[in-house]
Design brief:
The structure is a homodimer.
Chain A lengths: L9 H19 L2 E2 H8 L3 H14 L2 E6 L9 E5 L5 E7 L3 E7 L5 E8 L5 H14 L5 E8 L2 E3 L4 E5 L4 E4 L1 H9 L3 E5 H12 L8 E6 L3 E7 L2 E2 L30 H5 L1 H11 L8 H9 L3 H25 L3 E5 L7 H14 L2 H5 L2 E4 L6 H15 L5
Parallel strand pairs in A: 4-7, 7-11, 12-15, 15-16
Antiparallel strand pairs in A: 1-3, 2-3, 4-5, 5-6, 8-9, 9-10, 12-13, 13-14
Helix pairs in contact in A: 1-2, 1-3, 2-3, 6-13, 10-11
Chain A binds a DNA duplex through α1 and α3.
DNA sequence: CTCACTTAGTAAATTCATTGGAATAAGTTA
DNA sequence: TAACTTATTCCAATGAATTTACTAAGTGAG
């Protein structure tokens, strides 16, 4: 049903330990060679030789001496944060967003391109060209988050209705054009990778990120790995039925989570039930909630109620400790979290609720580009747990 | 938040490749050294030396020559199926079940012990003693599936209310007593391991097994690994709320899946709505369904309806291709599957439904002991994909 | 029947990353 | 200043995989 694992060779071992050393330094902040050896169980000799390579590659630097504890003071090592720059792209519904970040996720450049209705691929080239034109650090590669069904292993966009892409071999196209490593993944999956790499719960082995915007999607880490699904369709949580006889959803069923808890559904509902001169926005909701506007709060509470049911299902199934809300609705913060947590407590086992921590993402609107770039960290530099 | 991966050493490489060779032979049935080399990308020399060890260990045997294809005929290798015997234990609600199986999952011995209300651990010792007394093949170790919250990594039963066990270090106790490797896991998780190792969809990277008996639990494989959860509580699917204002469940909430679709709930319902001289049993349901008894069919259809909703949630979240039903209710076969598939189609995205295959387990009532023994195959012999 | 050819498997020499022990560097403490 | 610590490097040894050469054992053409 599937191939065998890869063989172990000297090269593989070497690469593995090289990455292990890098990761120890990456996680360690400022750490000496001996401490890396202690942490990794590698011998000091092996660590030294790998550190020599890392210094040579410009990925690591020596940053001074540690205070002596009765012997030769240790030379502290740390990652050269801008030793590589990473390109992260977000192919959103109506615009292309691109950022260049360093190895720590610090944003060094940001470009946006509103889609003009023409060839999306050409505009993507244009955006990448712009980003590259303004960078002078060595670029590690290109990471892309896009909506739709994306075969990450093959680097192919199998289906992206909004973009008109069908079986587009995006990885190979970009790889050939720019001569750089390219990785792509579904945008919801990519948000989870962003949280796993740069978020408040980085490195948590089990992590669910719920992305609430025009639709609702989830990205899932289980046992330290992203869940893609057998047909690259994992995380379609927006079409869980939470209201057996609810509103018709664009998917053809009734009462999907998206119809009651997506940002677009809420804005539509507010425009209908509480009309204003301007259409409702997230900012307007925040203001209304600050003023304790009862109708608005009731609508948000209801959405939180249904999100709580959906999250209860997820937590019951996976027992993931961390559930993180991202996307535009996450901006509501505690106004969303509090009713959601109440609903979760009503719909999941007490022990599981106690073992679950629902939070709001701190990564903001760059989450997709950050996650796209993080694909490179994971695949090219091995910044990922086993 | 978590430790670093293990370092790569020569020993590790050696073990890895040794296991790789074994797995290739295990999967290959009867395969030559060269074909193992082709399959694994190992060099013929490396394969030969590992095969020599496997022959010496009595795990593999030479089983004749392949027809020549214009050169020296290949010597075929295959696993010596009874080269090791595995002990699998099922700590069930009211009895202890133990089997001895060989490397292919063939059952060589079966023992049952009805719990007498006394010390469960003592009775477990007794059962193992009996099993060991009647075996003369080398025993690889002991695997255990038990209800409750089980920390597989530590080998500790954290909580098993029915058994009165709390933080019981079962692995170390048994390991010390018998001098054998011991592994334990939650019984629902173990059913998934059984399917993954011996079932019709063995080696499927993503696999969900739904175990329907007194309660409802799930065991999940994602990316080729069992999902334990951060607090060892993954798979608690029985307490998903499917009927917002339903019956009170033992967990304190209302309308849990268990209250409408567990075997016990169905039998209770039948006893109430269609009383008979004898209490209802699965066998009686089968007979009634064969006679197209309308009330019984309606009750089963309703349960299937709710199971379909729960499975739609799972499939939407994980996009696992294979969903396998096990436990006593699975004996109903197509009478359960057909309405369940209809319900699934109504509650999940069409593309996901098309990518999902719901089946009934073929492993029968030995599924837990088989899975428990399979823990040994995975951990001691590496019969598991990466 | 012999010779050229093919394929399977083994043996010996080579490679190279890890290992282990000794040497060196650079401090602290009595 | 001497004794001790701790960090790091140097160097020879190890051992598993690899490479290359070789043997084993068949097929098929002439």
């Amino acid at each position: 049903m599937q191939g065998l694992p890869k063989k172990a060779s000297r090269e593989q071992s070497k690469l593995h330990n090289y990455r292990l050393v890098f990761k120890a330094i990456y996680d360690g902040g400022a750490i000496s060679r001996v401490d890396v050896a202690r942490l990794t169980n590698l011998t000091p000799t092996t660590v030294s030789s790998n550190v020599a390579i890392l210094l040579d590659e410009g990925l690591v630097q020596e940053v001074g001496l540690a205070p002596s504890g009765g012997g030769k003071p240790a030379t502290l090592l740390s990652v050269l944060d801008d030793g590589r720059h990473l390109i992260g792209l977000d192919v959103a519904g109506h615009e292309l967003r691109g950022t260049i970040i360093n190895l720590r996720g610090a944003i060094r450049q940001r470009q946006t391109l509103a889609l003009n209705g023409g060839n999306v691929l050409e505009q993507l080239y244009q955006l990448i060209d712009q980003l590259l034109a303004n960078t002078h650090n060595p670029v590690l590669g290109i990471g892309i988050g896009a909506p739709g069904v994306i075969n990450t292993t093959a680097g192919v966009v199998q289906q992206a209705v909004n973009l008109g892409w069908h079986n587009l071999a995006l990885r190979d196209l970009l790889g050939k054009r720019y001569g750089l490593p390219v990785y792509l993944a579904n945008d919801s999956h990519v948000t989870a990778i962003a949280e796993h790499t740069f978020g408040s719960q980085r490195n948590a082995p089990n992590l669910v990120v719920i992305n609430i915007g025009l639709g609702i999607g989830a990205g899932i880490f289980i046992n330290g790995r992203i869940v893609g699904g057998d047909a690259w369709g994992a995380g379609e949580i927006g079409h869980v039925v939470v209201q057996p006889n609810g509103i018709l959803c664009r998917c053809g069923h009734y009462g999907c989570l998206e119809t009651v808890a997506s940002t677009s559904a809420l804005l539509t509902k507010l425009d209908a039930s509480l009309p204003q001169a301007e259409p409702w926005t997230i900012a307007a909701i925040q203001t209304a909630l600050a003023n304790n506007e009862p109708t608005v709060r009731a609508i948000i509470d209801e959405a939180a109620h249904y999100l709580g049911i959906a999250i209860a299902n997820v937590v019951g199934l996976l027992n993931a400790q961390f559930v993180i809300l991202a996307g535009s609705l996450a901006q509501l913060g505690n106004d969303l979290l509090q009713p959601l947590r109440r609903s979760l407590a009503h719909h999941a086992l007490q022990t599981l609720v106690a073992a679950t921590d629902v939070q709001v993402s701190t990564l903001g609107s760059d989450i997709v580009t950050l996650g796209a770039a993080a694909l490179l960290l994971a695949n090219e530099l091995g910044i990922v747990r086993d």
